[in-house]
Design brief:
The protein is built from 14 helices and 5 strands. The protein is α/β, with parallel strands linked by helices.
Length: 296
């Protein structure tokens, strides 16, 4: 069994694209409505999903090469992939599996942890603005500006009014990005508490993954209901038409990786980057090179 077709011809074929299937619907968010272990848009299992992910490489490589070439010749377009989710949801795993499918020079990774003392002294969007991808690139954000309307409210260092103000600022900022040629693809990697527990235990069982384990993560895990409620609130408040959220079920790693790669491929197909036209006389350059050979 294989993935259902998710190309730009989906409307013609009568099938919804994955973007349509996973896009957050309007209205208050109910995360329970999307089971973390579901595989929307895909009818196969892990083996088929792994093959389907690999099959996206030619398309993603070609599209990102064209996007990079476009940016190299003055184009203003770029793609920002925002990856948010609870610890162990697989933000880093997505990048490891999806980014290699892109042209090597066309993507960049930025990670966001706790703000440094310098970053904390600036507006919360300052550190994000400085780390945007260049024109022609796909930028992956492992965590993002949404950390600043997620963690502080849960930990009580930001009140409701301050949180709402920040959410409004984020919407305006993303609108400015989109108006300037940035496509914003926001993926919430949705996992269950049971899956997180299994993955944390797996880190403890593997000495090569002890570096990834932080005892402080148990504090956040103890606040699981609070984080789920806060995620639902920020997803509701920050999913405008110009930069909607996509809820990606993430209990199954293979599906999560395929889904994000497919969403990215659909985004790039909508952009449809083109090879830039030559900014010089091709025939003249060919003549000069040919003459050079005759003179040797």
């Amino acid at each position: 069994m294989e993935a259902r077709e998710t190309s730009s011809n989906d409307d013609v074929a009568g099938q919804a694209s994955l973007s349509e299937l996973l896009r957050l619907p309007a209205g208050p968010v109910d995360l329970a409505a999307t089971p973390p272990g579901s595989t929307a848009g895909f009818d196969g299992g892990k083996a088929e999903g792994t093959r389907a992910l690999a099959a996206l490489r030619p398309d993603l490589d070609d599209l990102t090469r064209r996007l990079y070439a476009e940016g190299n010749r003055g184009g203003q377009r770029r793609v920002l992939v925002v990856l948010q989710g609870m610890d162990t949801s697989g933000k880093g795993g997505v990048v490891r599996k999806v980014a290699p499918l892109l042209d090597a020079q066309a993507w960049v990774l930025r990670t966001f942890g706790r703000p440094t003392s310098e970053e904390a002294g600036h507006h919360f969007l300052w550190r994000v603005e400085r780390r945007l991808p260049q024109h022609g690139q796909v930028g992956f954000f492992d965590r993002s500006h949404y950390e600043d309307v997620l963690v502080p409210p849960v930990r009580g260092t930001l009140d409701d009014r301050q949180t709402q103000r920040r959410q409004q600022e984020i919407n305006r900022w993303e609108s400015t990005l989109v108006d300037g040629g940035t496509a914003v693809l926001k993926c919430f990697l949705h996992i269950s508490a049971d899956t997180q527990r299994e993955r944390l235990l797996a880190r403890l069982d593997d000495p090569t993954k002890h570096w990834k384990y932080d005892p402080r993560d148990l504090d956040d895990r103890a606040r699981w209901p609070d984080y789920q409620a806060r995620y639902a609130a920020l997803l509701t408040a920050c999913s405008p038409d110009h930069a909607p959220w996509y809820v990606v079920p993430a209990d199954r790693k293979w599906y999560r990786n395929w889904a994000v790669a497919t969403l990215l491929a659909e985004q790039l197909r909508r952009l449809d980057p083109q090879w830039p036209e030559a900014h010089f006389d091709v025939d003249e350059q060919r003549r000069l090179l040919a003459a050079e050979g005759h003179g040797s």
